[in-house]
Amino acid sequence: MTLTERLREKISRAFYNHGLLCASYPIPIILFTGLCILACCYPLLKLPLPGTGPVEFTTPVKDYLPPPVDFDRKQGVTTEQPEWYVGAPVAYIQQIFVKSSVSPWHKNLLAVDVFRSPLSRAFQLVEEIQNHMLRDSSGTRALEEVCLQVTDLLPSLKKLRNVLPEHGCLLLSPGNFWQNDRERFHADPDIIATIHQHEPKTLQTSATLKDLLFGVPGKYSGVSLYTRKRMVSYTITLVFQRYHAKFLGSLRARLMLLYPSPNCSLRAENLVHVHFKEEIGIAELIPLVTTYIILFAYIYFSTRKIDMVKSKWGLALAAVVTVLSSLLMSVGLCTLFGLTPTLNGGEIFPYLVVVIGLENVLVLTKSVVSTPVDLEVKLRIAQGLSSESWSIMKNMATELGIVLIGYFTLVPAIQEFCLFAVVGLVSDFFLQMLFFTTVLSIDIRRMELADLNKRLPPEACVPPAKPVGWAARHERHLAVRPSMPHTITLQPSSFRNLRLPKRLRVVYFLARTRLAQRLIMAGTVVWISILVYTDPAGLRTYLAAQVTEQSPLGEEGLAPMPVPSNVLPASHPDPAFSIFPPDNPKPAENQTSPGEPPGPMGPAENIHDSPVPEVTWGPEDEELWRKLSFRHWPTLFSYYNITLAKRYISLLPVIPVTLRLNPREALEGRHPQDGRSAWPPLRPGPAHSGLWEPNPKGAGGAQTHGDVTLYKVALLGLAAGIVLVLLLLCLYRVLCPRNYGQLGGPGRRKRGELPCDDYGYAPPETEIVPLVLRGHLMDIECLASDGMLLVSCCLAGHVCVWDAQTGDCLTRIPRPGRQRQDSGVGSVFEAQESWERLSDGGMGLEESGDSPLLQHRPRGPLPPSLFGDQPDLTCLIDTNFSAQPRLQPSEPAKPEPRHRVGCGRAQDSPGYDFSLLVQRVYQEERLAPLHSPAVRPPSPGSVLLPAPEEGGSPSEKGSPSLAWAPSADGSIWSLELQGNLIVVGRSSGRLEVWDAIEGVLRCSSEEGSSGITALVFLDKRIVAARLNGSLDFFSLETHTALSPLQFRGTPGRSSATTSPVYSSNDAVICRMTHTVPCAHQKPITALKAAAGRLVTGSQDHTLRVFRLEDSCCLFTLQGHSGAITTVYIDQTMVLASGGQDGAICLWDVLTGSRVSHMFAHRGDVTSLTCTTSCVISSGLDDLISIWDRSTGIKLYSIQQDLGCGASLGVISDNLLVTGGQGCVSFWDINYGDLLQTVYLGKNSEAQPARQILVLDNAAIVCNFGSELSLVYVPSVLEKLD
Amino acid sequence: MVEGKTESPVPKKCGPYISSVTSRSVNLMIRGVVLFLIGVFLALVLNLLQIQRNVTLFPPDVIASIFSSAWWVPPCCGTASAVIGLLYPCIDRHLGEPHKFKREWSSVMRCVAVFVGINHASAKVDFDNNIQLSLTLAALSIGLWWTFDRSRSGFGLGVGIAFLATLVTQLLVYNGVYQYTSPDFLYVRSWLPCIFFAGGITMGNIGRQLALYECKVIAEKSHQE
């Protein structure tokens, strides 16, 4: 034993034990795993929340220096510094916050006066700032040297060229609206219009031009006609390239000296650095979305392969959870051990998922599922695990190897990725072993429980049951009613899972899952949450406020502190203040003391009692920029093609400026048009409340302009939403007309209702009406065909021979009990007799159950013309097989149904014509065989019979059950047809050879006494398998040479045939050549022969292969864990077998080895057939599964109607036909597409097609109760597009 | 008897639908179109990925730049991918060794994702020098082949495609039709062959998976005849 083998065994054993453990204690293990996941994910809480919102960091102004650029930041103690706080910021922003008011207010003043003159002061201020020079020992320094010099605006912003500065300092003030030209401002008649000319019409979250220039949110600016507070505030924004403390200090001191703010409590201590995350533009979004789409496709295609489990979705979810949580664990663990993720999580996530993969999970599932079902769950899990253990370990080692190679590329990003991947792989393995295996065991256990609950009774399994006496009789007569023994709960055909053309699948998938609606809903939720999170007044700001409150530099110390105006702010840090610019001529003149009444006011009305609007400076003014949109600064810089992504800016403490204007100044600044404007001078209200009276025109005077917009938008949005919903509703109706709410209804599919699949796709339905072969009295149980002829045998023991081309009934072989082999007439009478008995039984049931048929009861006297029916039929049948080979030449399919009348059936009766039967009963009783010429009876509904006689007739008949009692010869259990010979195997063990054309017994053999369960008739050999497990080989010998029988079919066709056809005058002798007395321990259930081999399958779980010539047993094949139910062998020596254990085995007949073993069905495999590339199996679970023949992989499965599970036939290598409730469906084997559905019979109560037999001319015969239907396939497929 | 019957003049089992699906030329065309579309899409997305490296925060005309720079690049990529995707199964058939390794759509999706990832890495990850970048990408491409293909013919074809495509690109650049923003090796990017190789493997994988459908049909048809 080599090392690998030993290793392999050890691994396998370990996995086995592990599987046992997992399946034994599922709940504790899952809990343990959950705890592990949570523990590993705990470090993730420390990571910042994802989002595009900016992040802030505050440093004191004192001793501020731009952070160094170097990277050796790590050994520093500054752990509080965020990572981005490296290097100089993009810019320093100095806001000069101007608050101004006209006071005292005068009643003659207009609304425009509130802001006109305050705004005009902006020009003065800007001038002052621009001319500011710092003179110190190192020389002079002008603004141009320190400010941020901007170049051109972006070419797309041509219309803003006049407003925003270009080629110079970036200095923004409201004056920019008028190109910083005071004259222009004074000439402007309508300030508001000028300000709002660039405002976008819609609601917009990003910064507008007005916001940019005013530097305060529009609400706070006060430049509006309807403000309550007559105070105007704006900022002058100055952007510096470098931090020059002295210059800034001198500017601050100068301005505060010029325009003192008396009660200013701003401390101006802190510098706030704002770091902006990367904005996701469309260029980045598209590849990102693509990778995610690929990821989802991958997950979809992977989880689609999960099969044979209780809850597919549950397991798929578990698989995805496994991968995701392993990734989270990996990130968490990496964070725990000190690695800080630098990669963009959203970008690398799909790749990580793909690298880790779902393969192992799927392999695990498949392996567990394919263990034998009859084992205990524990053992199944353990076996499944251990059988895949080696490959799982190998895969994992390979992946780890590949990833480790990636680690040695020495590229930091790739190394980080590989680190995540390695840890992810390991944690994924851990989760697979503990979490997924346990979930799988729970699922498998649930499936077993469900199986136990809905296990079908075993009778329902064997396709056509062996003679079951009364039960069969019931079945036949109840066939008109929906309730049949094993169709109690009808499964509508709409639950077929099939595969459609892709385009339709997409459409129906959309319609079925209502994907569009859900996407819109999800999108709305996400959008709203994003809005809530990133809105300036939203969650993010709230969070930020929380954070700042917690910080020691928070606002709790910011009590309003009166500061004398002419004294420096106590906290001013700037030492440069002492070197006050000496060249300033103004300070003395403009200095106004705080308490001083505002100068010599012009009009005497200044004593008016309207209160002076207080210009106060609160702590909220210090950080007014927080109220701006968080895109304010990025927008501003983006105009000059400067990106703030992944960079930061520093905001300097604001410089407060207070402007007090007296009314005279306000009046001076007035524009001539202002007086004539629409706004009349304000009349103070009678109450003199001092409040700003609402303007007569402003209906909602209290509301600000923005609020109105908001409401408007909300209203519009609501309306649009309603319209959208209505539109979707209409679309939904159009796309998906199916009614989802209605479930099943009466549980029965009506005729007009198409079978459709999950997607609502209904394949084309044909107009073809099949050829219905009627003549059997009871359910047909055996069918055999050689292409030319068709032999059927019903429960009553009658054998009918049909021409497979035309559907003519050629011969009828009656029950052997009362054989009248003289002529066909006799058999017809025989048929009549049994018909009577049958109708007796039928009547009894009808009276109890079927009320609609009661109205057919004859009431009146019998019209004599009715008696003509009988002799007509007799001669019809008489001539049918003796004189003329075919009554009518084969004709093309007519649109109306062609009912080939079998022996003794009225030609015009479309369905079960019970009244006709009643007439015959009547007729028999009278013993009046009036051979009048053939006259058709009138329509059955009008036929009337005397009631008393009719009522008495059933009881007077001789023992009606006689027909069902097993005769001495036994019932027919098996049937084979070749050439013109029918071989019949009976339950009594008797083997009979009949002539198919003439209906005579050619020879018989009574060698064995055990019932013949299966027959093979090949060339001249007959092999009979018996109930006791023995196998008899017969050979047929004729005394004269074989000659093709000219009787059959067209001459051309029969000349082409090679099979022996025995002429009627030859003597045929059936001689037993070999016998294998004890081929099997238990009854032989399946028997097939091909390519010189004979295969038997038995209830003793084994198969045996015999050579056909000498009956030598070549192999005994063991591998099933249940009785063999079906066997398939073809010329290519491929042998397939299915058993009661639900497994399918493929064998090599040459070597006797098992090629593959598939766990196929829950319940017995009922039938099995192969094409060149596929194995098609059907099971007791009413599923038809199609398997790839070479790999044993399941391609897809088709859900059948209940009770039709075994009915399938292969027409060609790519055409499959299956039976349903009153219909047959054609499938494309390769694609699994439902091609067409053909309804058989036009009566609405459809019976399930229980057997399908494919003839050579591509017609199929299905077994519908007592009828046979012939369908020609080419005509079916021609109608396809 | 059975064999004798099949030659009867009755039209055979195949209706027009089946025959249209099984018709080889139609199938070939469908596959070609699908591959072409995939190629165009991938070219657009990957081009965007490369552009992204140089864009500013607010690129005003990203969409325009996709189409403006060289409109003929995506169609060329599409055509090339169609050819490659059809060539791979064809060569498989001629060599007589059908590709059996991991023939599933999930595996194909994985392959595409890894391919996009390689492109992503080449566009986004900062490498010290170009040799390192090229070596890494080469290793990744070989890994892609090993993980998803593992056939000698696939490798050979991939190398051939990479060589040819690089040659063509080189010619185009020499003639001034096309230009790279930052060439580092003979006027082109040195990682180009690796990307071409990985792309060839990926498209071949897709093409083979698409051809799986056709293979079945053809095999059955030939069996019938």
Automatic annotation (TrEMBL), chain A:
<feature type="compositionally biased region" description="Low complexity">
    <location>
        <begin position="948"/>
        <end position="961"/>
    </location>
</feature>
<dbReference type="GO" id="GO:0012507">
    <property type="term" value="C:ER to Golgi transport vesicle membrane"/>
</dbReference>
<feature type="region of interest" description="Disordered">
    <location>
        <begin position="840"/>
        <end position="860"/>
    </location>
</feature>
<feature type="transmembrane region" description="Helical">
    <location>
        <begin position="313"/>
        <end position="339"/>
    </location>
</feature>
<feature type="repeat" description="WD">
    <location>
        <begin position="1158"/>
        <end position="1197"/>
    </location>
</feature>
<feature type="region of interest" description="Disordered">
    <location>
        <begin position="884"/>
        <end position="906"/>
    </location>
</feature>
<dbReference type="Pfam" id="PF24006">
    <property type="entry name" value="SCAP_N"/>
</dbReference>
<feature type="region of interest" description="Disordered">
    <location>
        <begin position="574"/>
        <end position="615"/>
    </location>
</feature>
<dbReference type="InterPro" id="IPR057041">
    <property type="entry name" value="SCAP_N"/>
</dbReference>
<dbReference type="Pfam" id="PF12349">
    <property type="entry name" value="Sterol-sensing"/>
</dbReference>
<feature type="transmembrane region" description="Helical">
    <location>
        <begin position="351"/>
        <end position="375"/>
    </location>
</feature>
<dbReference type="Pfam" id="PF24017">
    <property type="entry name" value="Beta-prop_SCAP"/>
</dbReference>
<dbReference type="GO" id="GO:0005789">
    <property type="term" value="C:endoplasmic reticulum membrane"/>
</dbReference>
<keyword id="KW-0472">Membrane</keyword>
<dbReference type="InterPro" id="IPR019775">
    <property type="entry name" value="WD40_repeat_CS"/>
</dbReference>
<dbReference type="InterPro" id="IPR000731">
    <property type="entry name" value="SSD"/>
</dbReference>
<keyword id="KW-0446">Lipid-binding</keyword>
<feature type="transmembrane region" description="Helical">
    <location>
        <begin position="280"/>
        <end position="301"/>
    </location>
</feature>
<comment type="function">
    <text>Escort protein required for cholesterol as well as lipid homeostasis. Regulates export of the SCAP-SREBP complex from the endoplasmic reticulum to the Golgi upon low cholesterol, thereby regulating the processing of sterol regulatory element-binding proteins (SREBPs) SREBF1/SREBP1 and SREBF2/SREBP2. At high sterol concentrations, formation of a ternary complex with INSIG (INSIG1 or INSIG2) leads to mask the ER export signal in SCAP, promoting retention of the complex in the endoplasmic reticulum.</text>
</comment>
<dbReference type="InterPro" id="IPR001680">
    <property type="entry name" value="WD40_rpt"/>
</dbReference>
<dbReference type="GO" id="GO:0008203">
    <property type="term" value="P:cholesterol metabolic process"/>
</dbReference>
<dbReference type="InterPro" id="IPR057042">
    <property type="entry name" value="Beta-prop_SCAP"/>
</dbReference>
TrEMBL record, chain B:
<protein>
    <recommendedName>
        <fullName>Insulin-induced gene protein</fullName>
    </recommendedName>
</protein>
<dbReference type="GO" id="GO:0032869">
    <property type="term" value="P:cellular response to insulin stimulus"/>
</dbReference>
<feature type="transmembrane region" description="Helical">
    <location>
        <begin position="131"/>
        <end position="148"/>
    </location>
</feature>
<dbReference type="InterPro" id="IPR025929">
    <property type="entry name" value="INSIG_fam"/>
</dbReference>
<keyword id="KW-0153">Cholesterol metabolism</keyword>
<keyword id="KW-0443">Lipid metabolism</keyword>
<keyword id="KW-1207">Sterol metabolism</keyword>
<keyword id="KW-0256">Endoplasmic reticulum</keyword>
<keyword id="KW-0812">Transmembrane</keyword>
<dbReference type="GO" id="GO:0008289">
    <property type="term" value="F:lipid binding"/>
</dbReference>
<feature type="transmembrane region" description="Helical">
    <location>
        <begin position="69"/>
        <end position="88"/>
    </location>
</feature>
<comment type="function">
    <text>Mediates feedback control of cholesterol synthesis.</text>
</comment>
<keyword id="KW-0446">Lipid-binding</keyword>
<comment type="subunit">
    <text>Interacts with SCAP; interaction is direct and only takes place in the presence of sterols; it prevents interaction between SCAP and the coat protein complex II (COPII). Associates with the SCAP-SREBP complex (composed of SCAP and SREBF1/SREBP1 or SREBF2/SREBP2); association is mediated via its interaction with SCAP and only takes place in the presence of sterols. Interacts with RNF139. Interacts with RNF145.</text>
</comment>
<feature type="transmembrane region" description="Helical">
    <location>
        <begin position="28"/>
        <end position="49"/>
    </location>
</feature>
<keyword id="KW-0472">Membrane</keyword>
<dbReference type="GO" id="GO:0032937">
    <property type="term" value="C:SREBP-SCAP-Insig complex"/>
</dbReference>
<dbReference type="Pfam" id="PF07281">
    <property type="entry name" value="INSIG"/>
</dbReference>
<comment type="similarity">
    <text>Belongs to the INSIG family.</text>
</comment>
<dbReference type="GO" id="GO:0032933">
    <property type="term" value="P:SREBP signaling pathway"/>
</dbReference>
<feature type="transmembrane region" description="Helical">
    <location>
        <begin position="155"/>
        <end position="174"/>
    </location>
</feature>
<keyword id="KW-1133">Transmembrane helix</keyword>
